[in-house]
Every structure is written in C-alpha cells, then in structure tokens.
Amino acid sequence: MSFWKTLDSEAQLDELRQASFVRPQLIFKHSVTCGISAQAHANLEEAIADLNEHVELHYLDLLRYRSVSNAIASKFGVPHQSPQAILIRNGEVVYHASHFSINPGKIVRSAA
C-alpha cells in the first residue's frame, strides 16, 4: 500500500496549500537516477507509518515533472534542490531540507 500521492501538475499546488490548513502536507522531490535521492526516499519509507499519521505525503518525480518542481520553488519560496523535503502547514513552509539532512523525526515534530 502506497501512502504517497503523486504530484504531476502545477494545479495540484494550490490544492495542496489549501489542504495544509487541515493537515500538514509533505512534498518529497525525488530524482529517480540519484543514489542520494534513493537513500533519502528509503529513510522516509522506514518512517512511513509515523509520517502518514502526521502529514499527507506527496511524491514528485522531478525528472518527469521539472516544471512542477520549478513551480514549487516559486510558489513556496524554497530554492530547488534534489532530493528535497518540504513541509507546508497553514499555507506556509515550516520545514525544508535536502540530501542527507532530510529527517523524518524533524518532519513529524514540525508538523505539530
């Protein structure tokens, strides 16, 4: 069972921002050809049950949807990186990290 919702259009970002007023929204930007990104994804997967309890999970394949990644950077004011985790709560970014700094525990704490 996958807890991840696929991000594949810029239109979803407005919906995601609105949903963040009800439940925090996590965006994970993943480069499927990058080993560091694969490790960051695996670290999130190890904590998936805890993450899913606190946030709604969104997955972006940024190689396929680079325009969506660029829109995220523009809309939320967070420079593009890969891999990258961005947590939106009440319409605002409350956590963002990239590479080996992505920390599931910090995501959960930031969601509270």
CATH architect. name: 3-Layer(aba) Sandwich
Percent range of helical residues: 40-55%
Query: Total strand count, please?
Result: 5
Low-confidence stretches: none
Major β-sheet strand ordering: 1-3-2-4-5
What sort of overall outline do the alpha carbons produce when their principal axes are compared?
A: globular
Query: What proportion strand?
Result: 25-35%
CATH superfamily: Glutaredoxin
CATH topological fold name: Glutaredoxin
* Biggest pleated-sheet summary: 5 strands, mixed
The average pLDDT score comes to 95
Q: Rounded to an integer, what's the Rg over CA atoms?
A: 12 Å
Taking the alpha carbons of the first and last residues, their distance comes to 25 Å
Class computed from helices, strands and strand pairing: alpha/beta
Identify the CATH class: Alpha Beta
Number of helices: 5
Instruction: Give the domain tally.
Output: 1
Give helix and strand order, one letter per element, not per position. EHEHHEHEEH
List key phrases describing it.
single chain, 112 residues, alpha/beta, Glutaredoxin, five-stranded mixed β-sheet, 5 helices, 25% strand
